[in-house]
Design a protein that fits this description.
The protein is mainly α. The protein has one domain. Helix 1 runs antiparallel to helix 6.
Length: 127
């Protein structure tokens, strides 16, 4: 179960790296605007600084999980589990905030929170 938890947390990390890319690098592009429901390039430009910053939050959560997985790989299970739980738990919490604050974005919130939640559950069972 530990491996399943780490794989699921790793998938969540990859999802958040993609979100980082969309928010911090490709924010004003057609694809990012379509995914986030921003109709005009002008509106995207107005929110670019906020999105840039938010993208880095997502990247840092992904890095936290990656370092946790690496710690597991070198047999530092306590440090690894702690980092994976913190990174994945923060992802779940952020997804819940999105779900509660903006119910119309439930699909995005579930994509953000289900993989890390499953990773947390599997890792906890495995430990």
């Amino acid at each position: 179960m530990v491996i399943a938890g780490l794989v699921l947390a790793g998938i969540a990390g990859l999802i958040h790296v993609y979100i980082f890319y969309l928010e911090s690098i490709a924010w004003t592009g057609d694809r990012a605007r379509a995914i986030f429901g921003i109709a005009s390039r002008e509106r995207a430009e107005m929110t670019r600084e906020l999105a840039f910053n938010q993208g880095f939050y997502n990247l840092f959560l992904a890095v936290t999980i990656a370092v946790g997985i690496a710690a597991f790989a070198v047999d530092s299970r306590i440090v690894g589990a702690t980092l994976v739980f913190v990174g994945a738990g923060s992802m779940v919490a952020a997804g819940l905030v999105l779900l509660v604050s903006t119910p119309s974005k439930a699909n995005a919130a579930l994509k953000q929170l289900v993989p890390p939640l499953l990773g947390i559950i599997a890792l906890a069972i495995g430990l």
